[in-house]
Design brief:
Layout lengths: L13 H19 L8 H4 L7 H9 L21 H24 L7
Length: 112
């Protein structure tokens, strides 16, 4: 997910962030079939103030800013059982590699 969490207003590069996010979650799904969603935080999950990605975007003006929620969809919340920790790390790493490749293909990093 990407900024902002405190509003449903879209960033100037919303479409780009969404497209990069799609590449990332596609790569993440390959190993274990885990499904994720991408979009701005407020529209994807709920309004959330004070998030780190909002701070990084708002204060530092970075173009590519994302955050992840853990893979569980309600049973364990943010406290995953030990058996899910390594698979979560593996699929997240796969998604980060895809994210970096896609961002690079789009000319990032860009300066503010």
């Amino acid at each position: 997910m990407f900024p902002y969490g405190h509003t449903t207003d879209h960033l100037e590069n919303h479409d780009e962030l969404y497209d990069i996010g799609l590449k990332s979650i596609s790569a993440l799904k390959q190993k274990y079939g885990t499904s994720y969603e991408t979009g701005n935080i407020a529209e994807t999950i709920y309004i959330a103030t004070g998030s780190t990605v909002d701070y990084v975007k708002g204060v530092h003006g970075k173009h590519i800013v994302y955050t992840y929620e853990l893979r569980d969809q309600g049973r364990y919340g943010f406290l995953l059982p030990p058996a899910q920790i390594i698979p979560t790390g593996e699929e997240t790493l796969d998604s980060l590699v895809a994210m970096f490749k896609e961002a690079k293909s789009r000319g990032h990093p860009k300066t503010v």
